[in-house]
Amino acid sequence: MGIESPKARIASGPGVKSGLQDVAKLAGVGIATVGRVLNERGNVSPATARRVIDAARELGLRRILPTPHRRLLRFEALFAYPHPSLVTRLNQGFTSLAAMLDRAVIVERTTLRNAAPATIAARIRAAKADGLMLYAEEHAEVRDAITAVTAAGMPVVCMVTDIPDSGRLAYVGIDNERAGRTAGFFAARMMRRPGPVQVVTGNLALRAHAERLAGFRDGLLAEAPEATVASVLDGHDEDDRVARLLGRALRDYPDTAVIYNSGGCLTVVAKEIRRLPRPLGMIFIGHELTEESRGLLDEGVMTLTIDQAFEFQARRAVEVLLHHLGHTDALPGPAGISFTVHTRANT
Fold first, then answer.
1. In the prediction, which pLDDT does 280 show?
2. Could you tell me which residues come within 8 angstroms of residue 227 by beta carbon, excluding any fewer than 6 positions away?
């Protein structure tokens, strides 16, 4: 006959039973569930076990409390708008995070080549992960799919761009409206000569780009009310489209003083700037600090870039899911990620 460890059983008696009832009431479970958790008999979900143990700690139950079993968790990072440079940065963020994660946590990454809303929605509904980290456009079908899977118990964290009113657990990313306003502030303050302003946007179905555009307009107006946004070029982060639209705008407005690019296609924008006979004094503001943008900053073609720290976004999104699922007691940091401003002087 084996010898039971001191924590293997709960002693009986009126005082102990009263204590267990208090724990059950605070945790919102039955007393039998409390017994299964504290005696480590199993058949209790990790989230429920966590509630019971937290309640026992809060009430100061006098016994050695078990460590809740941590089952394998599988998260999926779904990138549904596959712009190459952005997806590369996101992948790098999750790759660097992998070495820091518990072995019981697996993060899988999926990129959809077809970013049609119906395709995205179908893929969200088909996800089998314990938690989903999503980068996708704001569309009714996508929103409904998020609502459906969250109602079924799978938490969703939106990254980079938000999809509010969808039931998602959290948005992890920068304040894109403030980032755009910051770009407008610097454009106005750094403008060396008066002239038209050209704005190149990414896909405006992504809330992030719409917010950046609105913020840029507000920031520019506040600091330089005489400045004029001559064109808003909906480039969709497509090289050929951006080259055609921006090339035509610069021919129509050869005295352009500022170009603000809220998305990618930096090489194309730089190429169009170099075509100008006298591009000196033009302000070019964009987003993300990459090897490409570093080179353009060093060259003097790009004036300023705003980086949204994908590495921190990846880490924070995983932390939010882990805490929500009761896998860690540590509270995640704020979901809002600080953006940073880079020029040739500080890269």
1. 66
2. 187, 188, 191, 194, 197, 220, 221, 257, 258
User: H or E stretch including 340?
Assistant: strand 340-342
The amino acid sitting at 311 is: E
Residue 141 CB contacts under 8 Å (≥ 6 apart), including other chains: 117, 118, 120, 121
Which of the two residues, 8 and 152, has the higher pLDDT score?
152
Model confidence pLDDT, tens digit, residues 103-136:
788 999 999 987 899 999 999 999 999 999 999 9
Q: Mind giving me the DSSP string for 17-46?
A: HHHHHHHHHHHTS-HHHHHHHHTT---S-H
State the number of CA atoms in the 13 A half-sphere of 59 facing the CB: 21
Phi-psi region at 149: left, alpha or beta (left = phi > 0; alpha = psi -120 to 50): alpha
Mode of pairing for the β-strands spanning 73-79 and 131-135: parallel
Distance separating alpha carbons of residues 291 and 270, to the nearest angstrom: 14
Would you tell me how many other CB atoms lie within 10 Å of the CB of residue 47? 12
**Amino acid identity for residue 50 in this structure:** R
Question: How many Å apart are CA 318 and CA 167, to the nearest integer?
Answer: 18
Nearest to 34 by CA among 15, 8, 52, 55: 52
Between CA 204 and CA 222 the distance in angstroms is 23
Q: How many helices (H) and strands (E) does the chain have?
A: 12, 11
Query: Cβ distance 86 to 141 under 8 Å?
Result: no
Q: How far apart are CA 46 and CA 70, in angstroms?
A: 7
